[in-house]
């Protein structure tokens, strides 16, 4: 029997996947919204095993996320390769709801990527690039000419040539298609492929939640006219209901292997414990075939499955990430992110070698700022995360510990802090719908400046523990139902992060918290 691989290929918050092949190598990028660094890039030789090799947007000069709201920032990116150069094109949506599209380039995807080339007169979101015959083309979505985007949900897919010398659009604009839904749901995420006698336009429709879908059109000329596929939508799970194990399927990209197979990467979410998907929208892989000139995703079932036979490629397993980060490197591992662009050096791996030091700063998780939070994605429905922290709260309001974060209005934080009477306590606080609630408080009468933290999740039950001696775990309150951390409640396009956090709650502070290691394991 042919061996099977397991989906999703990128578990956790990795939405809007885009993929390209260069020889025997495959590269994949996903969206990051308000999280920094932006746009993780992964490498694979077999489409199944992926290793993160960095971030596309890793410098403040490339990515200004100042004051962006949750689920704003970096929208869907597309990665393509042409004539020895990698191109990534994406949308930045800022705090004033302005959007601009830009391109960054690199000859080595592991190295530094260029500063952005901002495109003028390029409205809309989810841009893509198409190269053929020495020419480059920009494809995106926009509000139809003469209509106000604030008063209509209508969008259209449009095409214009890109001058690679000036990195600006040039020539005539061509409207290709307005999608299957005719204005009922935004057509977006367009990609163009030339296969045989046709140019194929693959897009997403239905919004990015339960009604999400993939649709297809084709034309014998790049600039149109495009005819819709009679099988549209060619991929969706919206008809499977809210009890389906995989939902919100859409936003696809295609790649042809060196063996001549076609594969699709697509986003989808896994509800658990109810219609909650705390892990966010994840990246899935499925085979495709062509039949009578049209694409058939997941032939035989027509839906995304949890497993498929491996691609006809040599298997290249990648090294697994260590369960425990001991903070011994000079830079943070690529799995770590922070909220918005850091504008000061508030964290360090050098101040105390072998430890991660974060400053206790006035900023908090409830503001649209860059707080002292460094986190990694929740990637499993059940997990355990542990860390050791050295911290002395030196005044009322200074606090440090751990947090489970969806956005500024929905998160859990478990902090060591000083009260008004000088006592040291641990507090577990839930923030839901923008309101804080104290769930538990434990007095630390024998606290000597060092504490261990643990978070355990068993499905939607999140439990917090502390220990003043290694493995001497004591519970902090009761289990918390984590459904409020899902975007089906909290709204938005992201998934849950788990990490370390410190704040002085608006007051000046020169204090800091040190973390010796951080361990994350599925259970």
Count of helical segments? 1
How far apart are the termini? 29 Å
Q: How large is the share of residues in beta strands?
A: over 45%
Supply Rg: 24 Å
| Structural class by SSE content | mainly beta
The total strand number stands at 41
- Average pLDDT confidence is 95
Roughly what percent helix? Answer: under 10%
Major sheet description: 9 strands, antiparallel
CATH uppermost class of the largest domain: Mainly Beta
Give the CATH architecture of the largest domain: 5 Propeller
Instruction: State the CATH superfamily name of the largest domain.
Output: Glycosyl hydrolase domain, family 43
- Number of domains as seen in the coordinates: 2
- The unreliable regions are none
Report what the structure shows.
1% of the residues lie in helices and 47% in strands. By secondary structure, the protein is mainly beta. It starts with a strand and ends with a strand. A hairpin with a 7-residue loop joins strand 17 and strand 18. The mean pLDDT is 95. Strands 26, 28, 29, 31, 36, 37, 38, 39 and 41 form a nine-stranded antiparallel sheet that branches. It has two domains: 4-309, 5 Propeller (Tachylectin-2, Chain A); 324-522, Jelly Rolls, CATH 2.60.120.200.
